[in-house]
From TrEMBL:
UniProt source species: Pilimelia columellifera subsp. columellifera
CDD domains: ASKHA_NBD_TsaB
Lineage: superkingdom: Bacteria
Protein name in UniProt: tRNA (Adenosine(37)-N6)-threonylcarbamoyltransferase complex dimerization subunit type 1 TsaB
Stored InterPro entries: ATPase_NBD (IPR043129), Gcp-like_dom (IPR000905), T6A_TsaB (IPR022496)
Occurrences of domain Gcp-like (ranges): 36-135
SUPFAM superfamilies: Actin-like ATPase domain (SSF53067)
Amino acid sequence: MLALVVDSSTPAVTAGLVRLGPDGLDVLAQRVTVDARAHGELLTPQLAAVLAESGVRAAELDAVVAGLGPGPFTSLRVGLVTAATMGQALDAPTYGVCSLDALAHAADDGRPLLVATDARRREVYWALYEHGRPVTAPAVTAPAVAADAARLRGAAFAVGEGAHRYADVLDLPVRDQPLYPPVASLAALVADRIRAGAPRETLTPLYLRRPDAVAAADRKSVLQ
């Protein structure tokens, strides 16, 4: 089975193609470009590139997997709209994964850990994990709040771009990798659902806060 993988929840514009076997998966091709301002320009060409590199036609895809965030409004929307559109056009089911879960999956060594990505505004998107499973809901707060929660849960280390950015506040060992949600982990977390032919999932974004750009409020006429 073939699954296309998309994540745009971080500055990394991520596209990949995986083949799911009975007992595992193989990453056939992937493209990851770190550019927080170019998700819209880069994602579609990267998807085309991974298909071309693998010699796979879009019509052969069995599923589309997307990272749901949390992430900034604009970049996250690019990935989810692209994934949903491809799923509809190809009549392929779509499946969503919390992007923080993918980071935890890739870093899990059995010990409690903190996953933190950069939320801008001097904040982080974060969650705590034990044995690769979330023990807190995703949140967006100041790094100090995440640090307090990590201490209470006995987190042994932290991963993610946000953990690197605020390592001095978190006061935890920070692993070099993964910085961004890996293609293999995004796919692995929904692999059983894909193999079982589970129904298509609505790709609901984890924004956690309102977008920076909002519609202007109605203004009174200067003539009134």
